[in-house]
Write a structure and sequence with these properties.
The protein is of the alpha+beta class. The chain contains 5 helices and 15 strands.
């Protein structure tokens, strides 16, 4: 079954055993699920005895926990990190947060991104010095990207870091111009002077997220796109703008007061 509360949640909970408790939260898992390659589990998130989310099948071997003091002063969060068992995909994180103003659950699907930093799976870092850390994730939507007769291999696909912002009620994706310095630093770190489709997409994307005007971002794309990609430049540009706008790896959220 897919994530969410579809299917038969009663049966799922009845078959599950507790793998974590955190305040009024519980994470249950149906273990021993048959798979051709590895043992799998199916997590269910409970709050105060009620099922609030049924997850997809993930590998039992790599499901790990991390406890951090965030997203706001006085809050603490338990993170369950999961992997679907694919070659380089897919990773997701269940966040169970206990805060003075209420508890919060969120599920963040990070796709191909395995880790946010060396210190934490989501790399919470206060990027704007407001006392509230942002989460480091990535936009994976250009993995294996194709336009016209051209396509990118996975290793050639652009890495597109993004941030998630805590607004007091839940997490949201950052907005263009909100973290200008961060994206200018990303642009400098991944800059390329040679024609390269991945670098062209990356540079244009970072400029839009830094709050630069569309003309500047499009000019970077045209400057770095290889000759064989130029005929598809218009389509690539439209995809970049759309994906900057639509990015949202938060697949579920619940707040409890």
């Amino acid at each position: 079954a897919e994530g969410g509360l579809d299917g038969n949640p009663g049966e799922n909970v009845a078959l599950a055993e507790t793998i974590a408790e955190y305040g009024l939260f519980q994470i249950l898992a149906v273990k021993g699920v048959e798979d051709e390659y590895m043992p799998m589990i199916k997590p269910t998130v409970m709050f105060d005895g009620q099922a609030i989310y049924h997850g997809d099948l993930v590998s039992e071997d790599v499901a790990g926990f991390e406890r951090l003091e965030f997203p706001a002063p006085g809050c603490s969060t338990l993170i369950l990190s999961t992997w679907s068992g694919g070659a380089h995909c897919c990773f997701a994180h269940y966040l169970l947060s206990r805060c003075p103003g209420g508890d919060h659950f969120s599920l963040i699907d990070v796709g191909n991104q395995e880790a946010g930093s060396e210190d934490s799976v989501l790399g919470p870092t206060d990027m704007n010095n407001d006392g509230i850390p942002e989460l480091q994730v990535a936009d994976n939507s250009f993995a294996y990207y194709s336009a016209g007769e051209n396509s990118l291999c996975f290793a050639c696909s652009p890495l597109l870091p993004r941030l998630l912002v805590w607004d007091g009620q839940g997490w949201r994706p950052d907005k263009p111009g909100e973290f200008r310095q961060y994206y200018l630093e990303q642009l400098a770190a991944y800059s390329s002077s040679a024609p390269d489709a991945g670098a062209a997409i990356q540079g244009s994307y970072f400029l839009l997220m830094a709050g630069e005007d569309a003309a500047t971002a499009q000019a970077r794309l045209l400057e770095l796109l290889p000759g064989e990609w130029q005929a598809s430049a218009g389509a690539v540009w439209e995809d970049i703008k759309q994906r900057v706008k639509d990015f949202n790896p938060i697949t579920a959220q619940n707040r409890f007061e």
